[in-house]
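Write out the 3D structure for:
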Amino acid sequence: MMNRREEIKKENKKAVPLFILLICIGGLVGGIVGGASSMIRLRIDQVFGGRLIVDTAFVIMVAVAILTHIAGWYTYFKCKNRLKGWDEEDEEVPEHIEVGSQYAMWGITVNSIVSFACFAVVASNSMNQIGEDTAKLRFVMIAVVIFVINLFAGVLMQQKFVDLIKEMNPEKRGSVYDVKFTKKWMESCDEAEKMQTYQSAWASYRCMGSLYPFIWLFTYLADLLLDIGIFASVVVAVLWLIQTSIYYYKAIQLSR
């Protein structure tokens, strides 16, 4: 026991210098950025006007939506044609369809996140000026229509890919339109598929656990430079707290 304690102390002692160095570097960088924040913020205001930010967000939302649906539907019909010609013996066909579906789901999710983020920028900045310019109202309404159509089209695409997987694997259960879809789908997965999901979730948890401090720092600096308020930093901290609490609560439950 004593040898093990000595090993632990030795390992901790070895890691301390680098830890202190990183803290000092972080403090130095933070001090420099904080001291220069006024000049940087003034320069940002000069280069980027509010209207430019709104227009850029709108273009990004539309462009990402178009690219996502073109690539997604192309992948869907390519996978569908492969399934039609499948003799149920060639193992490359199911693998191709699975991978294509995963890429499509990834794209749909990214598209949804980008749409929410860009729509928030467009709506919040334009709504403040609607009383001054009726053209802003028309612009916001167009953004709303594109936003809603994009989200519904994404759900439809997701449903098509899920139906394709269910056609290939009759044991699969669940409809995208069902509020309990995730639960039913997981129940119909075999052990290998569940393990793949668990490993992916663990990788996501570890990645976000490492990124949250940097995301919080980014929102803090954004408040210094752009005066966005501390709400964003608080939201990041709350999400960090929720994720961590759920993980440990579930881990305690499973260990009993």
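DSSP finds seven helices and no strands in the chain.
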